[in-house]
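Researcher: Next entry in the queue.
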Amino acid sequence: MKSIACPALVLVLLASCVVQAQTPINQSRAVNTDARIEVSNIKGSISVRGWDKAEVAISGTLGAGAKGLTIDGDGASLRIKVEPPTSKGWFSWAADTAMGDTTLELKVPRNAAMKIESVSANVDLGEVNGRSLSVDSVSGKLRLDSGAAELDIDSVSGDVEIHGKASKSHVETVSGNIRSRGLTGETGFETVSGDIDVDNGDYRRLSAESVSGDLELRGAPSADADISIESMSGDVHLRLPETISAKLQASTFSGDIRSDFGTSKSPDHGPGSNLEVTLGSGSAKVRIETFSGDIEIRKP
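Model: Structure for this entry, 300 residues:
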C-alpha cells in the first residue's frame, strides 16, 4: 500500500504546485487619469502599457510560493504588490528564492505617474507619459519607453535601456550597462563597472560618472550647457557639435587625450596629459577627468 500511496501523494503535491504556479490574475480598478501607480514584484516580470482609460487592468499569473496579490489605495494612488511568503513591510528583498515567477501585465492611464520595484523581475514599460517614472531593481533587466517628465532609475546588476524625452533624469547602476536615447534638460548617469551609452536630445546639463565602465556620450548641448564627466579607468568618448562655444577642460593622469578641439599637452616628466581651450564665446562648460582612462573628444 505504501508503494502506491506515496507516489500518488507526490503526484497530488506536484499538481498542487503547478496549479499554484499558474494561478491567474484578473483584476481592475478605477483611477484618475493622472493617478500614482506603485507596483512591486520580487521575481518574474512586470509589463506596463498605457491606454486611454481611467482604469488599471491587472492580468498575468501568480508564482508558486507567493501569498497573494495585494491591491489597495484609491483613485489618486493605487498600490499593487505581490506578497512574498514572509512579508516585512512594503517590499521584501530576500524572498525571491522561495518563490516562483510571477507575471504581472498592467494597463494604466497614459498620464499615470509610475513607481516600480523589483528584485529579479524584468521590467518592460511603454506608452506611459505621466509626470514621473521611478524604477528600483536589483538584477532584473529594464526596458523603458516613456514620455515621463522625470526619471529616476536605480539598478544593481541589471541592464537599463531607456527611450524618452524627460527633462530631468537620473540613471544609476553598479554593474549593469546603461543605454539611453532622447533624454533632454538635466541628465545624470552613474555606474561602477557598467558601460554608459547615451544619445541625448537637447540638454542643459550632462553629468556622467564611472569607475571602470566606458562612456559613449552624444547629444545637442544648449548654448550654456554644463557637461561634467569623471572616470577612473574607463575610457571617455564625447561627441560635441562642430560649432559649439565652450570652455573645454580635459585631464588624465595616465591616459591619452585625442581631440578635434584644440591640442592636448603632456608634462615634460611623468605620464598624463591636459587640454584647455576656449571655443567661440566659451558660454558652455565642458570638464572631463580620468585617472587611467583615455579621453576622446570628437565632432559628430
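Model: The first strand starts at residue 23 and ends at 30.
Researcher: Noted, moving on.
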